[in-house]
Design goal:
Blueprint: E1 5-9, E2 17-20, E3 31-38, H1 44-51, H2 55-64, H3 72-75, E4 86-88, E5 92-98, E6 101-112, E7 118-125, E8 141-144
Parallel strand pairs: 1-3
Antiparallel strand pairs: 2-8, 3-7, 4-6, 5-6, 6-7
């Protein structure tokens, strides 16, 4: 059984709006990975962080929990290590089990050494549910940034 993983990279330049429309195939993704940046000089760093992740290991982990959420403590080690010339905050996460919805996420923020550049990576386990904080991904979403 293949586990769907959706990787959303928010490509946003200062003073612009970026909108993403997700394909119908991505609507069935169990794992959602969001990589976004703030004050980044180039969008390339977002791709670099995404490429550094071990998606096969995340997929294997999801197979170990076919009908339950992956505990956030197991997702945290799947977050990428800081890239060269970057540091990272301590990772955080949460398991949510409320009103019949179960999901978990792990998040870490990375900082460019000597700069204001910041990248955030979030791994969400949706447990294949269609409602929750990720609900509506396939409807599309927009990021808007102020002029700088």
């Amino acid at each position: 059984m293949k586990i769907g993983i959706l990787v959303a990279i928010a490509l946003v330049l200062a003073g612009s709006t970026a909108c993403v429309q997700v394909s119908a195939q991505a609507q069935t993704a169990r794992i959602v990975v969001v990589v976004d940046g703030d004050n980044i000089a180039s969008n390339q760093i977002l791709f670099d962080y995404a490429i550094s992740m071990e998606f096969g290991e995340i997929e294997s982990l999801a197979r170990s929990y076919p009908t339950d959420m992956i505990p956030y403590a197991k997702l945290i080690p799947k977050l990428p290590s800081p890239l060269k010339d970057w540091t990272a905050d301590e990772p955080t996460g949460v398991n949510i089990d409320a009103m019949g919805l179960k999901y978990a996420f792990a998040q870490r923020t990375y900082h460019k050494t000597g700069g204001e550049d910041k990248v955030s990576v979030v791994i969400w386990d949706t447990v294949n549910q269609t409602s929750g904080p990720w609900g509506g991904w396939w409807l599309g979403y927009c990021y808007e940034t102020p002029d700088t």
